[in-house]
Design brief:
Helix content: 25-40%
Distance between the termini: 75 Å
Shape: globular
Order of helices and strands: HHEEHHEEHEE
Largest sheet: 4 strands, mixed
Radius of gyration: 31 Å
Structural class: alpha+beta
Number of helices: 5
């Protein structure tokens, strides 16, 4: 009977070594010698091996970065990608204190790296007047005709709407304006004798990110 008990104990020992490995077994023995119960010792060894094997170290909050699309924090302006979709890029808001100033950033176009990534700008020169407050803005464009059925004109409108919505949220000192709640109306005052004036919207940025 004693032989059978010893054999059963040996089997358990072999299983333990297979489970946690030689290094884990050594740690297990150390825990038991310190007075830790075998069950708790095995749990501690398993946890230590898992953390060591995965390269996990104690850490604080990790910033996983911004989502690939949609509205995120900070000042961003929007250009058009090679696939015809709007794509936001980060810009510094230094030197700007009102949303209409973001038009100047749009007119400067994508930088060299953004151009290499395939981003283009449909916002061209002209007179842009931005009015409104809170979550309501209107941008008035002089001497420009817009065709709501045109893909380019829609992306042009989206660039304005999304960039102004983001700027309005960033420059709102109360901090109560959310970019995805800002509604922008676009009024295109057509050149004399060319088509008719157009009033488009109001739009939210998500209308152009679908």
């Amino acid at each position: 009977m004693k032989g059978f008990v010893r054999f059963a104990g040996l089997v358990r020992l072999v299983r333990l070594v297979r489970l946690v490995g030689f290094v884990g077994f050594v740690r297990f023995v150390r825990f038991v010698r310190r007075g830790v119960s075998p069950g708790r010792g095995l749990c501690l060894v398993a946890a230590a091996l898992v953390l060591t094997g995965c390269g996990v170290r104690p850490t604080g909050v990790v910033d996983a970065g911004e989502p690939a699309s949609g509205l995120t924090k900070g000042l961003r302006i929007y250009f058009v990608s090679e696939t015809g979709r709007l794509e936001g890029v980060t810009r510094s808001g230094e030197g700007f204190d009102e949303p209409g100033a973001v038009i100047k950033l749009l007119l400067s176009g994508p930088d060299e790296s953004e151009q290499r990534a395939g981003l283009t700008n449909l916002v061209r020169g002209g007179q842009y007047d931005v009015t409104g407050s809170g979550d309501r803005l209107t941008v008035r464009i002089v001497d420009m005709a817009l065709d709501p059925a045109s893909v380019n004109d829609r992306n042009f409108t989206g660039q304005l709407v999304c960039s102004l919505a983001r700027a309005q949220a960033v420059f709102d000192k109360s901090g109560r304006t959310r970019p995805d709640d800002v509604r922008v109306t676009v009024r295109a005052i057509a050149p004399e004798g060319v088509r008719q004036d157009e009033e488009l919207g109001p739009y939210v940025c998500s209308d152009f990110l679908k």
